[in-house]
Fold:
Amino acid sequence: MRRLYHLISGLLFVYVISQLDRRSGIILVSVMLALAISIETARLIFPAFNSLFFRCFSLLLRQEEKRKPTGSGWYIAGVLLSLLLFKKEFAMFSMVILAVGDPSASTVGKSWGRHRIKRKSIEGSIAFLIAAIAAGFIFQRTLGSLSFVIIITGAIVGTITELLSSKLDDNFTIPLIASGCMQAVAYFFIT
Structure:
């Protein structure tokens, strides 16, 4: 259920942002981040609220998130920084990379992952990369005009970031690092 939620909510979020101008998208994501921080703070301070929160959203949460912030706030923060620092199109594609790549990696890694690097599997990372590239070509046809080089750059960087993530939540690092690398490649090699 968590993986399906990750996929659907991530792609819906991209669609909503695609319909807004950059400024309006930044305002929306800023409000969402303020709301997420408020909810996270309240649930970590008030045990009764935390219990209620977990009863309502137990299918979407990990057990270790009971005593620490969930990935949602990290994701929204990564999206906000990506929108503030990089081209909107790159930020949106980095959101797509995370939305399709992370559940693909998790599904394949848990089912068929045999070759490990820390807690991640090579098989899961390959699934992440394939899903991100495929999503990049769909994104290119529907919402953006990304070049082949940008799609491959974003997909590879997102995959490596997910594979090597440890201390910082990959919901934060993938949008930020993938957007930054796509922008750098566009600046230095494409224009």
